[in-house]
């Protein structure tokens, strides 16, 4: 099939960018979206134009490195990552608009590549259980009820891609943060630091410049791992509890 | 290309008498060197060696640790766990990765699980049995003491991960669940649905970020290590490129750890991530670190086949599919284009069940892979023709659906089958899936001693980047175990023996060795950007991959390998003269990044072929056409090849050092899966 | 920032602070989540008030005397424990405080959200978001304007556009809604209120952490819709009935 692509190009973080239009022919339905961009890049390279920069690594939907705004939807029209989106989701002759994640907490570095270091700093603020190597008790000394284990796992599947932020009209990272808080909060091991974890992570989230959540729900709809909205409810509840405990 | 200056090695391995070899296919391609011996593994009963070594390793006074600088390249299971643990101990750690976050290292993609000899199922497992299975699985080409230690510390890994909050699968009673994996008789594999690697890595990543907050670790993301700094024979730092600004930086330290992962991407198409590379390891190799057994690669039988020339990577599907799916191809070539559902039962060849009646579809990875390739080479492959051949065999769930019901199959495999449908657009509940083998893991890597130290003092290597524990083949679910064992429990103990002699003499940034290392990096970048040729980096990489897959893939022969070496050399020359890299050095430039990696893959590819050529035996993942039994089974030659081939860099004619493998706790046997 | 250059829209990029620090001494009460809790609590106060107010308004169907009696009753509520209009002033104080809190928090969150994305998308779909959720802010402004007008109309200013008496609540009500354009203003406001509650009630339950499972989430969404229809519908009955002559002087 043939496609017209409108793609955001920006030389670096401090230079203005704009949309460019490209035509690509010979797109096969079996290509992934990123393979389609690879093909375009080969053509650009051959023409002497610098290839379009975009992030990807695993290309199997698990590392969270890829992520594009495709026709106004984070990771495109299917509930999956950009690397696992295939061209059979598009039709011949279609015009596709491709933009980077837009969030001031995710500054654009070049073309479609953004800096998601703010996510790492949210984790640094408390997204862990403090246990030094070698000091762990025998694994079976603390049983975890299966329901808690299942819920913890379900939300631990977050890949940190940032689509939730990209999709949220407020640019909030609540879904990402809620997923981590729920994951650790469901486990007995996560209890001692529960109050300080939520307090510190939310403070870091705000400090990074993410917006506040107003429960719109676009994040969960865009999330390739289908993290449910109840993690945000959990986050709010945990923060309320932390306030009650004097944090 | 400038050759590196000679570095005088104050190698610790002692040199002994060489093994006798009567066939030398690789004659002329290498220079024989003195044998090496690992001098760090203590002698004595195998079960006591690690305790002894830990006790004998010198201690570092806590007050001095802050003054000791540790560089760790890589944030996968091996790197992140080491950085977190070293940070907790109080060392001053710098951690590097090429992704935008440490959490994205390729360990994240591991699906199946992690082994540990917990014996929670009371099915007779023990450290000794895990040791035994690993050595046997590695086809008696791994170092006994290392493997025993791995099995021994495996139990601690699970404790550690559970305490960190890794959400392993649990039973209703709240205790951890296990499954059996990769044809092993005991259930010792811990798992977190199909995402064990992700959950383990996130655990290590969180521990790492906790240390970043504590100020003991500093992370450098989107930084690629492009050179090792060796001063007076010891590793003292690295040169990196900031992949966003292009800035070339010098990082000096007292010790350098490489945890940079595997190099399966030398095949272009593999299950590895796009960025996986050999550059960190190769640069160290060029500076004097020996490369061991580079030809040992593991090919995974259940991947989604190539759909066209645009293909950028291959996707693995969990091996567990072989528990219930049946593998077949049509008996008649004419049937290959037909809809599989129209092929009658008697016209199907369930070739694994036919050739290996007792193991059937569950034969080890290499056997299943080679059998599938043979079917396709015979012209009985299925699926689309790519470059004139159909490369695919059916993996059929029709019987399983009949036996377990569609719900039963869904419950066990739905995420895998959904993934297959998303990628191929075909519904696996209605028609058989197509699978094909793909390169998945490399057992080879930088040579290390029992302390995980390379032949360059002060350079340690962990995880998939070293060669140490898996011999010629790796058991499923053992790479994750090794990465975490190295990073959490082994390296922090052995490295202190080295660091106890520090703090070391301060090196200044204008030391000639540092200046030289930095210059070689900028020269190389300058070169790529000024060739201004006609071919893209990717096109070279793809061609190199084809050569490797064809001649150094599942089956290797003397003529094929020699041809491959010629082809690679020709292609490499052309690359340096004709590659086209646009953009600038001082900005984010993905073509430039790839160019550097592909340049190193050329040299590695050559060495892999030479290593494969030298090893005229079939063992584990390495199958030499010339060395098989009458019925086509792998044939090992313990009398000639029971050694680790450790290669020293010397331009196009490397030097071969052999480390003899001696087993005291296990008897060597030929394997048979008939 | 946005400017037009040779036909193409060029967006300038804010230059970002490269080295972010970790927050020290975090306080839960300084967070966006806390602001949201304030919104939810003040919103809940409004919901309680509107429910009572709507119930009171529906007394209009019982005729002139009953309605005025109710209005009078409001003023003597709690007497003699409380002074004349004491309860009313307490309600007013709580409402005013809630209003200040609600508007303050809304403004802060709005400003944050704007700063969180200074470069906008060229194409943006709203997958997963109900329409009402996007109306919250401008809908809130509409409600604020309405409340100002409403108080002028009935409480503070007592404006009777048809020139009738203003000291008789029932007659003021009927005179007001006999004027078609005033009815329209109220109906528009009630639509805004309905939309505000359709998202707001669900949002408040989520903010208060009451929706920890798929089941409770669905329940909250359904209740939000129900409450929105009940309140906006219930309020609209009186003006519509006056306009169509069901309620007369
Ligand atoms: C699809 C797939 C499934 C697998 N499933 C399993 C399984 O079920 N069980 C199992 O045991 N094993 C499995 N494996 C194997 C296992 O995942 C890997 O061997 C293991 O995770 C490697 O870990 P590592 O820490 O050594 O390296 P990696 O996780 O690959 O990390 C490498 C790190 O090095 C960094 N790096 C590399 N080069 C440079 C450079 N030049 N400069 C700076 N940084 C650099 C990268 O950024 C990265 O952080 C699987 C592998 C794959 C590909
Ligand atoms: C069609 C809808 C409405 C009608 C017919 C209506 C009618 C009235 C009337 C008649 C009064 C005067 C009562 C008195 O003085 O005793 C009043 C007061 C008031 N109304 Fe409404 N109202 C409506 C909707 C609303 C809404 C939606 C709100 C707020 C969200 C609201 C808030 C108030 C307030 C705050 C007062 C003042 C109470 C006081 O302090 O005395 N009204 N309304
Ligand atoms: C005075 C004018 C008002 C303004 C400016 C206003 C504005 C807002 C805004 C901006 C929000 C947050 C948007 C969001 O959550 O998506 C909000 C939430 C809310 N509003 Fe209002 N509003 C007003 C009046 C009201 C009234 C009269 C009610 C109820 C009768 C109400 C009930 C709520 C509720 C329940 C919420 C949800 C709180 C939460 O998200 O936790 N508001 N309002
Ligand atoms: S919550 Fe979902 S969308 Fe957000 S970062 Fe995690 S996986 Fe991505
Ligand atoms: S879309 Fe945004 S407003 Fe909240 S529910 Fe999701 S973060
Ligand atoms: S590239 Fe890893 S998730 Fe898409």
How would you describe this protein?
The complex is a heterotrimer of chains A (247), B (674) and C (249). Chain A is α+β, with helices and mostly antiparallel strands and 247 residues long. Chain A is 34% helix and 12% strand. Chain A has two domains: 3-110, Ubiquitin-like (UB roll) (Roll), CATH 3.10.20; 116-129 and 140-244, Fumarate Reductase Iron-sulfur Protein, Chain B, domain 2 (Orthogonal Bundle). Chain A is built from eight helices and seven strands, in the order ββαβββββααααααα. The N and C termini of chain A lie far apart (58 Å). Chain B has a domain at 300-439: Succinate dehydrogenase/fumarate reductase flavoprotein, catalytic domain (Flavocytochrome C3, Chain A, domain 1), CATH 3.90.700. Chain B is 36% helix and 15% strand. Chain B is built from 17 helices and 22 strands. A five-stranded mixed beta sheet of chain B has the order 1-22-21-11-19. In chain B, strands 6-3-2-10-20 form a five-stranded parallel beta sheet. In chain B, helix 14 (537-552) runs parallel beside helix 16 (590-614). In chain C, helix 4 crosses helix 6. Chain C is built from seven helices and two strands; from the N terminus they run ββααααααα. Helix content of chain C is 65%, strand content 3%. The radius of gyration of chain C is 22 Å and the shape is globular. Chain C is mainly alpha-helical and 249 residues long. Classes of the chains: A alpha+beta (247), B alpha+beta (674), C mainly alpha (249). At the A-B interface, helix 1, helix 2 and helix 3 of A face helix 3, helix 5, helix 6, helix 11 and helix 12 of B. The site of one protoporphyrin IX containing FE has 26 residues of chain C, from helix 1, helix 3, helix 4 and helix 6.
Structural class of chain C: mainly alpha
**What's the arrangement of strands in the largest beta sheet of chain B?**
1-22-21-11-19
Uncertain residue ranges of chain C: 1-17
Rg of chain C to the nearest angstrom?
A: 22 Å
| DSSP summary, beta strand count of chain B | 22
Counting copies of identical and different chains, the oligomeric state is heterotrimer
- Mind telling me the C-alpha Rg of chain B? 24 Å
* Major sheet description of chain B: 5 strands, mixed
The number of distinct helices of chain C, counting runs of at least 4 residues, comes to 7
User: Between the first and last Cα atoms of chain C, what is the distance in angstroms?
Assistant: 57 Å
Helix content of chain B: 25-40%
Widest sheet, order of strands of chain C: 1-2
Average pLDDT score of chain B: 93
Contiguous low-pLDDT stretches of chain B (5 residues minimum) are 1-18
Mean pLDDT over the full residue set of chain C:
88
Provide the structure class of chain B.
alpha+beta
Number of domains of chain C: 1
Helix fraction of chain C? 55-70%
Q: Strand portion of chain B, in percent?
A: 5-15%
């Amino acid at each position: 099939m043939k496609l017209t692509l409108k793609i955001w190009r920006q030389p670096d973080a401090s230079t203005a960018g704009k949309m460019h239009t490209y035509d690509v022919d010979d797109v096969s339905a079996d290509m992934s979206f990123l393979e389609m961009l690879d093909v375009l890049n080969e053509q650009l390279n051959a023409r002497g134009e610098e290839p379009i920069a975009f992030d990807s690594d695993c290309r199997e939907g698990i590392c969270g490195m890829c992520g594009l705004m495709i026709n106004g939807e984070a990771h495109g029209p299917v509930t999956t990552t950009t690397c696992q989106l295939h061209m059979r989701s598009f039709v011949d002759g279609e015009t596709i608009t491709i933009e980077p994640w837009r969030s001031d907490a995710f500054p654009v570095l070049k073309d479609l590549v953004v800096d998601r270091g703010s996510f790492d700093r949210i984790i640094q603020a408390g997204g862990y259980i403090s246990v030094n190597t070698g000091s762990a008790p025998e694994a079976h000394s603390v049983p975890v009820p299966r329901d808690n284990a299942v819920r913890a796992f379900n939300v631990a599947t977050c890949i940190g891609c940032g689509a939730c932020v990209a999709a949220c009209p407020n640019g909030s990272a609540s879904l990402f943060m809620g997923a981590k808080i729920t994951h650790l909060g469901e486990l007995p091991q996560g209890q001692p630091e529960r109050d300080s974890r939520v307090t510190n992570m939310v403070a870091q989230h705000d400090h990074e410049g993410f917006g506040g959540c107003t429960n719109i729900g676009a994040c969960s709809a865009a999330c390739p791992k289908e993290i449910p909205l109840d993690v945000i409810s959990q986050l709010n509840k945990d923060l309320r509890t932390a306030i009650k405990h004097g944090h | 290309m400038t050759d590196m200056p000679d570095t005088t090695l104050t190698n610790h391995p002692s040199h002994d008498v060489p093994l006798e070899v009567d066939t030398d296919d690789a004659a002329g391609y290498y220079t024989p060197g003195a044998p090496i011996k690992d001098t760090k593994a203590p002698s004595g009963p195998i079960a006591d060696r690690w305790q002894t070594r830990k006790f004998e390793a010198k201690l570092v006074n806590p007050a001095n640790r802050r003054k000791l600088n540790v560089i760790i390249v890589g944030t996968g299971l091996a790197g992140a766990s080491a950085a977190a643990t070293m940070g907790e101990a109080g060392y001053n750690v710098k951690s590097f990765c090429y992704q935008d976050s440490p959490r994205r290292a390729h360990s994240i993609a591991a699906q199946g699980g992690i082994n540990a000899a917990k014996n929670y199922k009371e099915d007779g497992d023990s450290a000794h049995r895990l040791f035994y299975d690993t050595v046997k699985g590695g086809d008696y080409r791994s170092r006994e003491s290392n493997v025993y230690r791995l099995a021994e510390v495996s139990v601690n890994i699970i404790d550690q991960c559970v305490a960190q909050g890794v959400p392993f699968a649990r039973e209703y009673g709240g205790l951890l669940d296990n499954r059996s994996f990769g044809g092993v008789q005991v259930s010792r594999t811990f798992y977190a649905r199909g995402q064990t690697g992700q959950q383990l890595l996130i655990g290590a990543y969180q521990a790492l970020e906790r240390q970043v907050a504590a100020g003991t670790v500093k992370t450098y993301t989107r930084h690629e290590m492009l050179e090792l700094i060796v001063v007076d024979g010891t590793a003292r730092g690295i040169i990196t490129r900031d992949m966003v600004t292009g800035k070339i930086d010098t990082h000096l330290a007292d010790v350098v750890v490489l945890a940079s992962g595997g190099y399966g991407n030398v095949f272009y198409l593999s299950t590895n991530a796009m960025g996986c590379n050999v550059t960190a390891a190769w640069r160290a190799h060029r500076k004097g670190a020996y490369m061991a057994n580079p030809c040992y690669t593991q090919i995974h039988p259940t991947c989604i086949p190539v759909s066209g020339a645009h293909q950028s990577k291959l996707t693995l599907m969990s091996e567990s599919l072989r528990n219930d799916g049946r593998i077949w191809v049509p008996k008649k070539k004419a049937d290959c284009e037909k809809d599989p559902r129209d092929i009658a039962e008697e016209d199907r060849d369930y070739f694994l069940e036919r050739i290996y009646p007792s193991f059937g579809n569950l034969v080890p990875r290499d056997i299943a892979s080679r059998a599938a390739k043979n079917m396709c080479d015979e012209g009985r492959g299925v699926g689309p023709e790519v470059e004139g051949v159909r490369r695919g065999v059916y993996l059929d769930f029709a019987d399983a659906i009949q036996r377990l019901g569609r719900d039963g199959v869904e419950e066990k495999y739905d995420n895998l089958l959904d993934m297959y449908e998303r990628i191929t657009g075909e519904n696996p509940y209605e028609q058989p899936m197509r699978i094909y083998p793909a390169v998945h893991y490399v057992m080879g890597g930088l040579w290390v001693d029992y302390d995980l130290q390379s032949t360059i003092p002060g350079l340690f290597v962990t995880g998939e980047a070293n060669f140490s524990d898996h011999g010629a083949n790796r058991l499923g679910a053992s790479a994750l175990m090794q990465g975490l064992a190295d990073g959490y429990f082994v390296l922090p103990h052995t490295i202190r023996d080295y660091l106890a002699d520090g703090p070391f003499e301060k090196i200044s940034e204008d030391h000639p060795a540092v200046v030289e290392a930095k210059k070689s990096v900028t020269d190389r970048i300058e070169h790529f950007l000024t060739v201004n040729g006609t071919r893209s980096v990717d096109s070279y990489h793809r061609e190199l991959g084809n050569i490797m897959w064809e001649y150094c893939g599942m089956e290797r022969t003397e003529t094929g390998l020699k041809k491959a070496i010629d082809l690679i050399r020709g292609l490499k020359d052309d690359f340096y003269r004709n590659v086209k890299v646009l953009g600038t050095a001082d900005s984010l430039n993905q073509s430039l990044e790839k160019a550097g990696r592909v340049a190193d893959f050329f040299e590695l590819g050559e060495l892999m072929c030479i290593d494969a050529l030298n090893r005229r035996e079939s063992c584990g993942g390495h199958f030499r056409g010339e060395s098989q039994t009458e019925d086509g089974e792998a044939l090992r030659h313990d009398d000639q090849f029971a050694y680790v081939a450790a290669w020293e860099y010397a331009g196009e004619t490397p030097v071969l050092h052999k480390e003899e493998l001696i087993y005291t706790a296990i008897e060597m046997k030929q394997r048979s899966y008939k | 920032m946005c400017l037009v250059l040779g036909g193409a829209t060029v967006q300038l990029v804010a230059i970002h602070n490269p080295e972010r620090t970790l927050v020290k001494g975090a306080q839960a009460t300084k967070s966006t989540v806390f602001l949201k809790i304030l919104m939810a609590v003040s919103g809940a106060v409004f919901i309680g008030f509107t429910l009572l107010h709507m119930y009171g308004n529906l007394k209009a169907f019982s005729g002139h005397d009953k309605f005025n009696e109710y209005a009078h009753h409001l003023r003597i509520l709690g007497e003699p424990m409380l002074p004349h209009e004491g309860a009313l002033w307490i309600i007013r104080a709580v409402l005013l405080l809630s209003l200040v809190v609600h508007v303050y928090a809304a403004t802060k969150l709005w400003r944050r959200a704007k700063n969180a994305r200074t470069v906008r998308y060229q194409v943006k779909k709203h997958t997963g978001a109900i329409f009402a959720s996007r109306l919250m802010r401008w809908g809130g402004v509409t409600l604020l304007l309405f409340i100002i007008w409403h108080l002028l109309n009935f409480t503070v200013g007592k404006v009777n556009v048809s020139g009738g008496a203003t000291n008789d609540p029932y007659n003021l009500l009927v005179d007001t809604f006999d004027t078609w354009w005033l009815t329209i203003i109220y109906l528009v406001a009630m639509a805004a209120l309905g939309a505000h509650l359709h998202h707001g009630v669900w949002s408040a339950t989520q903010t208060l952490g009451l929706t920890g499972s798929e089941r409770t989430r669905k329940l909250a969404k359904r209740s939000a819709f129900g409450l929105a229809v009940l309140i906006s519908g219930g309020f609209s009955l009186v003006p519509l009935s006056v306009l169509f002559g069901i309620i007369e002087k």
